[in-house]
């Protein structure tokens, strides 16, 4: 699960988001309805357009539900109780994973 956030891009379609997370768009819509931290804009056609902040929050939700096995209620509670702490930990984990990948690539080039 990885979505490359572009500095120039302000919004991502639900199709782009679903593809990046390798899930159905219906799951993204479901999570949008379930989690208050997601606030995608809707265009004139009513399609959801996700901001980079929404993407970060979706990554956190995905991490809690899909990778750590939280129930939806458990994930909601976890986010409400420690949203800032959870986000900080999540960012640290993601940065460490990026560093590990870079180090592995360097090792393989030696």
Automatic annotation (TrEMBL):
<dbReference type="GO" id="GO:0003677">
    <property type="term" value="F:DNA binding"/>
</dbReference>
<feature type="domain" description="HTH merR-type">
    <location>
        <begin position="11"/>
        <end position="81"/>
    </location>
</feature>
<dbReference type="InterPro" id="IPR000551">
    <property type="entry name" value="MerR-type_HTH_dom"/>
</dbReference>
<dbReference type="InterPro" id="IPR009061">
    <property type="entry name" value="DNA-bd_dom_put_sf"/>
</dbReference>
<dbReference type="InterPro" id="IPR047057">
    <property type="entry name" value="MerR_fam"/>
</dbReference>
<keyword id="KW-0238">DNA-binding</keyword>
<dbReference type="Pfam" id="PF13411">
    <property type="entry name" value="MerR_1"/>
</dbReference>
<protein>
    <submittedName>
        <fullName>MerR family transcriptional regulator</fullName>
    </submittedName>
</protein>
<dbReference type="GO" id="GO:0003700">
    <property type="term" value="F:DNA-binding transcription factor activity"/>
</dbReference>
């Amino acid at each position: 699960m990885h979505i490359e956030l572009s500095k120039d891009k302000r919004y991502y379609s639900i199709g782009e988001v679903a593809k990046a997370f390798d899930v159905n768009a219906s799951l993204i819509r479901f999570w949008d309805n379930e989690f208050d931290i997601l606030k995608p804009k809707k265009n004139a056609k009513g399609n959801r357009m996700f901001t980079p902040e929404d993407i970060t929050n979706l990554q956190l939700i995905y991490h809690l539900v899909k990778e750590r096995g939280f129930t939806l209620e458990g994930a909601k509670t976890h986010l409400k109780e420690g949203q800032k702490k959870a986000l900080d930990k999540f960012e640290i984990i993601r940065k460490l994973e990026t560093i590990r990948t870079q180090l592995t690539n360097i090792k393989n080039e030696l």
